[in-house]
Amino acid sequence: RGYDILEIADGCDFEEIAFLLIHERLPNAAELARYRDELKALRALPQAVKTVLEQLPAGTHPMDVLRTGVSVLGCLLAEPDAHAAAAARELADRLVAVQGSMLAYWHHYSQHGRRIDVETDDDSVGGHFLHILHQRAPPESWVRAMHTSLILYAEHEFNASTFTARVIAGT
Q1: With contact defined as beta carbons under 8 Å apart, do 16 and 32 qualify?
Q2: How many CB atoms are closer than 10 A to CB 26?
Q3: Pick from 94, 88, 54, 52: nearest CA to 69
Q4: Per-block mean pLDDT, blocks of 10 residues, the chain (171 long)
Q5: Cα distance between residue 40 and residue 83, in whole Å
Q6: What integer pLDDT is reported at residue 164 of this predicted model?
Q7: Of residues 27, 35, 23, the one with CA closest to residue 8
Q8: 113 half-sphere exposure, CB direction, 13 A CA radius
């Protein structure tokens, strides 16, 4: 979106960058507060998603866990035939909000047989994920590091295999 990643990675929270990528501009303070509240309200996992996540073996790769969880969620929340930009943005917001819940729920169930509550009062995606992963409120330094990591992942335009194919085709 035209911003230098080195200038925003340390100074922005992940929600600001998610808003920028999904809604095409940085939010003002009021919009950011509303956006955080919207994402917080979308963190819950439907029971059907939890049931499927409980079936995945402990050795499943985390990306496969997310792919499976997102697929199940997609079956439960059908997309309209006419996919307007607003509906696509709502779907993207939902995916930003719920993926940490999916991964932490699967982790606790597959590793310890525990069905955790994925609701927290954390204001950020990173803080929420760390809270449910460690089952306690994370230190602010961890949340900051998580935000920076998520921002850098979000900036990455395509996966390594796509990059490799482009390099090979370009040579």
Answers
A1: yes
A2: 15
A3: 52
A4: 76 91 93 96 96 97 94 85 80 92 97 96 95 96 91 70 62 59
A5: 24
A6: 63
A7: 27
A8: 0
